Amino acid sequence: MFQDQLRFGNVSLSAAEIASDGNTRYALRMRCIRPSASGGADKADTLTESLDFRGSGGPSRLPDTRAEGRFRLRIALLQLNPTAGDLDGNSSLIVRGVRAAKERGADLAVTPELALMGYLPRDLLMSQGFVRRGGLMLARLAEELRDAPPLLVGVATPNPAEMGRPLFNSAVLLRDGVVGPVFHKTLLPTYDVFDEDRYFEPAQEPQILQWNGLRLGISICEDVWNDRDFWSRRRYHEDPIEALVKKGAQAIVNLSASPFEAGKQTLREQMLGHMAAKYGVPVAYVNQVGGNDDLIFDGRSGAWDASGRMIARARGFEEDLAIVDLQAGTGTITEDDFAPEAEIWRALVLGVRDYARKTGFKRVLLGLSGGIDSALTAAIAADAMGPENVLGVMMPSTYSSQGSVDDSVEVARNLGIRTEQLPISGIMQTYESVLAGVFRGLKQDVTEENIQSRIRGNLLMALSNKFGSLLLTTGNKSEMAVGYCTLYGDMNGGLAVIADLPKMMVYRVSRWRNRRKADIPEAILTKAPSAELRPNQTDQDSLPPYELLDEILELHLEQCQSADEIIAKGHDEATVRRILRLVRIAEFKRKQAAPVLKVTSRAFGTGWRMPIVRTD
User: Fold this and answer.
1) Residue where one domain finishes, among candidates 330, 363, 394
2) Known catalytic residues?
3) Distance between CA 449 and CA 269 in Å, rounded?
4) Domain-located, residue 418
5) Are residues 416 and 292 both part of a single domain?
6) Contacts of 522 (CB under 8 A, 6+ apart)
7) Is residue 85 packed enough to be buried (19+ CB in 10 Å), middle (13-18) or exposed (0-12)?
8) What value does the CA radius of gyration of the chain take, rounded to a whole number of Å?
């Protein structure tokens, strides 16, 4: 139920009366309590005004938690796995987390960034109704958690000003059934997968939450990523953390939704530890976990004492509740494996599981070719969904080797997944017969190879439609970069699982996975890669060796180097220019690809914004 009155500074709000006025603001009934100048009873004015989540100008005060002459500050880092747009489901996650925090004696609970909406909500934020329902959900949360510890919850709040973007990216304090005050994000990223300046107005001043003499500087995600002494080149002109410390912050609390990429956690920990030591203040950081669309969040929330020493780390790639005492400098550090193969494996398993679960799929299928890419994708799917929910489909043609068929059967048996075999030679003959007249006198070329791929893609989509299973594509980043894939063929599917893994990383992750159990046959790991679309074909008939290809692609795609810069490093000019041309002309294919799970600094997903029509 809604509470009767919600207070924002000196304004009492009737939650039941919140309604849209048809514009970008939200009308509501408010009672403003004006102190009496004569010392008599305060006066109450009732008016209709735009919804204002800014709260009071001064620092907010939390309940006294002093015991035996010392402060106690036990913060619960609620490492949650929200779903974009699911206000009800995300609210339930938050309530569950806060209840658990209360059981463990927390004084303050903190969610990740935009936890109520689920990061990234993207253009859901353009819906007035969605944002308004978020405000109503805050009222419900405040009432439901009236007897729980105070909560800082990440949510989008309306900007009541006549100018600027319509929203703030905010952290809202809920305590004793009351909503507010509110703290806004300052730095709004617009690079890679981020486009926050599209929706949000930045905070205009540092924001302090006071805990009986201890001043907490409240920050949100990007706000901690602009330290002049850590980065050789800063993206922004201002540093919100420096401003918070100058305003008297004695500890920093950061609500984050920081997407995963291999190696990023080590950088995060170095950066936040440096920040704590530089300013001599403890830092608490809570990160989202789980997959939303192409993004994967690894969690690993943490805390550092005033010397920069890590005092807590939550689990990676799963929900967790970490309790840290910033005053005592205590917490629990969960052991982790930062090897890139281990991180990537866990990220992709989580990404597949959450993408399927959050889009309503209980089963997945994929084509099994007998090659390394489909073998690794099958292993990831089996871990993510359970082997009983994975179907591997073998579709041998005239050009498929018996070894590839046998390898497919072996990997499926090792993983315990179900299989079907649908030979396509007869279908190929039908295509040849139908096209014989119009192709008369023309030599066979890549056209016939693509027909085979599209036959397989059509069969896989038929199975996906008939059985309601999510089709996983199995192409890697190297192939997608240079267009060594077939549109409406092997690119068919709802999720591109390993399309951000260069070919050589596919081998590395596969060998790492086999250390647990050798499910991927050694024959697959050692044979020459081949699409088997013509006799005796190998990938290197069309491409440079993958070791060389991946090196050039890494320089071009992730380091954004030009052909001249790559050639200057000693690479063959003809090879470099050919590869970069292939990357350029394959753009139209990538624009039509399934969502790509992001695990590197630059994936072919929402952060890749190259034009199709271009010359370079």
Assistant:
1) 330
2) 113, 185, 221
3) 48
4) yes
5) no
6) none
7) middle
8) 28
pLDDT digits (tens, 9 = 90+) for 101-126: 999 999 999 999 999 999 999 999 99
State whether 366 and 238 are in the same domain.
Answer: no
Q: What is the pTM of this model?
A: 0.89
Same domain, 535 and 549: no
CB 352 within 8 A of CB 384: yes
Give the residue ranges of DSSP H helices in 199-263.
240-246
Cα 354 to Cα 436: distance, rounded to the nearest angstrom: 46
- Give how many domains the chain has, as a whole number: 3
Please name every residue paired with 13 in a beta bridge, in sequence order, or none if there are none. 6, 30
- Co-location of 273 and 170 in the same domain: yes
For residue 266, give its domain range: 6-54+70-330
Q: How far apart are CA 439 and CA 462, in angstroms?
A: 28
CB under 8 A, 24+ apart: contacts of 280-283: 280/306, 280/307, 281/217, 281/245, 281/249, 281/250, 281/251, 281/252, 281/306, 282/251, 282/252, 282/306, 282/311, 282/326, 282/329, 283/224, 283/251, 283/252, 283/253, 283/254
Residues in the chain with pLDDT values less than 50: 1-58, 65-69
Tokens standing for 385? 């969904």
99 located within any domain: yes
Residue with tokens 């100058």: 246
d(CA 113, CA 253): 12
Nearest-CA neighbor of 174 among 207, 147, 204, 212? 147
